[in-house]
């Protein structure tokens, strides 16, 4: 297979993406507006992985649904290659959908138990290409080999495979249409730890061979450390820190990033600020976010200004961070 994109080429660019859900309060009252994603920007190049991290409810999956064209953003721009998905025609979207493929968390639920593996792999080709049956089968068998499965698995059913093998099949299916971007939503979190490493290595090998861009959604920073080139930390729909993985993991500057790293065994940083932070309390409701910094209600470093004014992203020590106190914390 030839690489679908050249390394360094921007595969996806999101500018100020927003997703607002109206929450009904009955027929006669205006709905509340829930800001699931509040102005998130990023880009991913061919051959690179951007990991989106944060607690449950921070907006990771909503972002994944927008980038996979399952949902339209309420606002902002989303470029896949040169085309802005927002405002694209139905025909353009049909073509763009082939360029973005999803791998889900649950390899047990995502494969139809009544279909043979060959049928599962060939289904996207039947709908989207003019390939003959023989050509489809050839491609499916080649794809099985590419993800480390034997060609004779072509005739078997999903229940005959382990969780790790099923996730390999799900990855194979995602690659059948030669996408340039794979959105992986917690792709290894349902697997045993020993199998996780194998699937992560497979994803890394495929990325190298095919020049794929990955948007990798995960709450597990241990996994993110292995697979990501860049990291975007979300809190309550907002980006709080975004930049190169090594910069963020070696010196997290946002108190929320510090807390996430401090709570991951083996990843707590060496700086005094990182060792001190323990995340307490619940994520506030996105229906009623804090007035100032979204993290202010749980932040041990919050000062008066943080409760009244919302910090914007600023560049500091080679990454972007949204925190009034980041400069001071960086020098501690
Ligand atoms: N279709 C929807 N309608 C209304 N609210 C929604 C909808 N989808 C998500 N939300 C809300 O948007 C916020 C972000 O949800 P989202 O699922 O994107 O977060 P997440 O970080 O992916 O969490 P998880 O890891 O639990 O999936 C949550 O408050 C959620 O309840």
UniProtKB/TrEMBL annotation:
Report domain ABC transporter positions: 12-261
Q: Which UniProt keywords are present, listed alphabetically?
A: ATP-binding, Cell membrane, Membrane, Nucleotide-binding, Transport
PROSITE patterns reported in the protein's UniProt record: ABC_TRANSPORTER_1 (PS00211), ABC_TRANSPORTER_2 (PS50893)
Q: Which Pfam families match?
A: ABC_tran, oligo_HPY
**Keyword Transport in annotation:** yes
Name the CDD domains on file.
ABC_NikE_OppD_transporters
For this chain, one GO molecular function annotation is: ATP binding
Which SMART domains does the UniProt entry name for this protein?
A: AAA
Concerning InterPro entries, the annotation shows: AAA+_ATPase (IPR003593), ABC_transp_ATP-bind (IPR050319), ABC_transporter-like_ATP-bd (IPR003439), ABC_transporter-like_CS (IPR017871), Oligopep_ABC_C (IPR013563), P-loop_NTPase (IPR027417)
Under SUPFAM superfamilies, the record lists: P-loop containing nucleoside triphosphate hydrolases (SSF52540)
Which processes are annotated in GO (biological process)?
peptide transport; transmembrane transport
Kindly give the NCBIfam families that the UniProt entry links to this protein.
oligo_HPY (TIGR01727), PRK11308.1 (NF008453)
Name the UniProt record assigns to this protein: ABC transporter ATP-binding protein
